[in-house]
Amino acid sequence: MIRVCLIFLLLLSFFGFSQQTDYVDFKEAKVEISINSKEKQVEGHIEYTFEILKDVDSIYLDAQSIKLDSMQLLEIRPHIHTEYIGIRYQNNSKQIIVYNNFKREQIFELHMNYSALPKKALYFIEKDEGNQIWTQGQGKYTSNWLPSIDDMNDKIEFDLSITYDKDYEIVANGNLTDKKTNEFTTTWRYDMEKPMSSYLVALTIGKYNKKVENSKSGIPLEMFYYPEDSLKFEPTYRYTKRMFDFLEEEIGVSYPWQNYKMVPVKDFLYAGMENTSLNIYSDAFVVDSIAFVDKNFVNINAHELAHQWFGDLVTETSGTHHWLQEGFATYYALLAEKDIFGEDYYYWRLYEYAQELLEQDKAGQSTSLLDPKSSSTTFYKKGAWVLHMLREKVGDEAFKEAVKNYLLKHQFKNVKTDDFMGEVEKASGQDLSEFVKVWLNNKAFMYDKAMKSLKKSTFIQEYLMVDCEVETSKCYEYLSSWISDEAKSKIIFQNHELIKKEAFINPLKVRQAIAQSLSDITTDLKADYESLLNDKSYITIEAALFNLWRNFPEEKTKYLNQVKDIDGFNDKNIRTLWLTLALITEDYEPENKKSYFDELTDYTSSKYGYEVRQNAFQYLNQIKACNDACKENLKQAGKHHNWRFKKFAKTLLK
């Protein structure tokens, strides 16, 4: 035992000075798993093929608390024979270490049977509409349910075969090649053709329908949706094909995978995740036509799609170069939206990013873009700004040539910032060392330079010109003028006293600003403000309902009846507010008070998505009506896998 521990310590010391990828290349993984949702268990068989690059006496797979049932090592000798090798290994609950006298150019297969009870990375979701199972590898490590390589520098071709209840759909990386159903289960076989980092291995299990549309280049775009959400399909997946076709042309490199699948899931950890060929995203972005105005899937879809090139095809070597994934995905998603919504939208979003980065600077929280501990604001939004400024500096032609060469040269490999900047210097003929120093190495965001770039847009010039905190004489007239909705909204938020009847004769976004900013409603504006309850915006309706209910107590019943049947977004923002107001409105349907209270309390249970639960908890807490059932649900929420919701619940429990 002492000798084994000593070998393990020596191994850790050895790999501390060099990556395993210098010594071994895992090439292919044939994975067969069956999932037991009752026991929350994964049982699997894996066959890894790997090549020895340098002589070494041990190799490892990452395996977090995985039970290893059996293992075999085979040496593959082309045109001769396959030979089983006597094997010695150790499973220390973090890694499976295989000891052997491995020699350069040898090729092996490693076969293993295992089981796992994953605490993270693979999640079991239980809802009334049906169970779901989904994965999240990035930041959580696929090795919690599949012995694999956490180091993103080793890219492997994964072929997944997954067995589960026959009444459910299974979606995974790659192309579905076969389905076999027996009495109780179905086995789904997926094939990948190219390698990827292990954190991008993914699967989803749930009850879905799907529609398929081919891109201009012939790539199948598989769009999944819940059977009950057929009417939400079009607004949810609006512009998908257009964005795909745009990005292929703009990037200049063909989409590198067999298909592109989009699958919504419940209680997801993030907005979306760019698993190779499989975008798993939060069903909060499954929307109807009204919700589309304020909260849609377009940006998330474009962002995760852009990652298929920037992150999946070429992958950072380490967190130091994380902006090569998130900055690029943010920038190219913005370009795709620019193609749809126009140039003003593009500059407006850049302006919003700049303001967020400025606030980060003021808070003393800014870091270099090459700091692996940087914030998401830095990686995503500063990264996008760097690409915008770089393109301005070198020109469209050189920029696009550099991006294309960068992707083709490093496809299915890992990259550093110098790899990209080197291609830009070659394509442009410019020395970009000063640009790197100012925009990448510098902690501060170059706000003045960014604003100079933004002012090339007449839309931004106009927005900056309108400032009612400095000059108020023309602001009332601006509200009925030709200026942009963004500029008018700015005026309203700066000085809501300027709101007169004429201000309501404006497009939806301006009316939304009125609903959100004008909390004290005068009698002469009452009828105009009431019209906001008919707007096609769940944000507007929510704000208008509360403000009207508060300002005109004698007409509470009228307002409650008017929006009684509206749920709002998937988080039931309007319904939960409505229930709360109905409960505290004296004499409003007293015979239904109990059912309304029961409904609001029920929304705190795990049957619902965490966004719905959070709204219900907040309202019940505000009216001091969180009963024993609510409190028990709150305790349960304090153990939720979504860290934001868990933090919210723990804070409320204090």
TrEMBL record:
Residues 30-200 form the Aminopeptidase N-like N-terminal domain. InterPro entries: Aminopeptidase_N-like_N (IPR045357), Aminopeptidase_N-like_N_sf (IPR042097), Peptidase_M1 (IPR001930), Peptidase_M1_aminopeptidases (IPR050344), Peptidase_M1_dom (IPR014782), Peptidase_M4/M1_CTD_sf (IPR027268). It catalyses: Release of an N-terminal amino acid, Xaa-|-Yaa- from a peptide, amide or arylamide. Xaa is preferably Ala, but may be most amino acids including Pro (slow action). When a terminal hydrophobic residue is followed by a prolyl residue, the two may be released as an intact Xaa-Pro dipeptide. Its EC number is 3.4.11.2. Coiled coil: none annotated. Residues 1-20 form the signal peptide. Keywords: Aminopeptidase, Hydrolase, Metal-binding, Metalloprotease, Protease, Signal, Zinc. One of its GO terms (cellular component) is cytoplasm. Residues 239-439 form the Peptidase M1 membrane alanine aminopeptidase domain. GO terms for molecular function: alanyl aminopeptidase activity; metalloaminopeptidase activity; peptide binding; zinc ion binding. Its cofactor is Zn(2+). This is Aminopeptidase N. It comes from Seonamhaeicola maritimus. The lineage of its organism: Bacteria, Pseudomonadati, Bacteroidota, Flavobacteriia, Flavobacteriales.
